[in-house]
Amino acid sequence: MRLSQAPALLVLSLISIAPVVVAQTHIGTLFNFVPGLGACGHTNTSQQIVATVSNTTFNSFPGATANPNKNPICGHRLLIKGAKNLTITAQIVDYYKTNPTSANNIGLSTVAFTHFAPLADGVIANVTWVIV
User: Fold this and answer.
1) Nearest alpha-carbon partner for 78 in 46, 52, 55, 114
2) Cα 45 to Cα 114: distance, rounded to the nearest angstrom
3) Are 35 and 46 in contact (CB under 8 A)?
4) What is the C-alpha to C-alpha distance for residues 57 and 11, in angstroms, rounded to an integer?
5) Which residues of the chain have pLDDT under 70?
6) Coiled coil where (predicted)?
7) Which CATH number does the domain housing residue 77 bear?
8) What pLDDT is recorded for position 79?
9) Domain range for residue 127?
10) Phi then psi for 48, rounded to 5 degrees?
11) 104 closest CA partner among 45, 63, 60, 48
12) Is the pTM of the predicted complex or chain greater than 0.85?
């Protein structure tokens, strides 16, 4: 009995065209963000562990549309690592308007920011983050 190679070739061709998304690590400055009604269409509070990314990051995410509520980034989280290997994972709920020097900065709600430092510190430089 001779089996057809067509099904195997079809599977291999589909695998070769499937997009591969590789998580990219960024380094930026962390700031305190006071959430409200965010770009993802939900209202959040400072007591929830939520994050904001730059409009550059938000709008360049694969599958982004003109309607920010439908941006697939809204279903993702940031994995953030600061000094002393402290980490936190926060849901992406909003974006902030940026300039080229701040595109890698991220904002965290108060409860999440204070995981890394007191609010009086204002900002925390050199945190690493990745979209997961």
Assistant:
1) 52
2) 14
3) yes
4) 33
5) 1-22
6) none
7) 2.40.40.10
8) 98
9) 25-131
10) -100, 150
11) 60
12) no
Look at residue 23 in the predicted model and tell me its pLDDT: 76
3-35 in b/e burial notation, b at 16+ Cβ within 10 A? eeeeeeeeeeeeeeeeeeeeeeebebbbbbbeb
* Residue 20 placed within a domain: no
The residues pairing with 95 across neighbouring beta strands, listed in sequence order, are 53
Distance CA 74, CA 57 (A): 12
SS (H, E, C) the chain: CCCCCHHHHHHHHHHHHCCCCCCCCEEEEEEECCCCECCCCCECCCCCCEEEEEHHHHHCCCCCCCCHHHCHHHHCEEEEECHHHCEEEEEEEEEECCCCCCCCCEEECHHHHCCCCCHHHCEEEEEEEEEC
Q: Is 48 within the bounds of a domain?
A: yes
Q: For residue 59, is it within any domain?
A: yes
Q: Is 76 left (phi over 0), alpha (psi -120 to 50) or beta?
A: beta
- Report the C-alpha gap between 21 and 17 in whole angstroms: 12
- Residue 107 belongs to some domain of the structure: yes
Amino acid at 39: A
Q: Which amino acid is present at 77? A: R
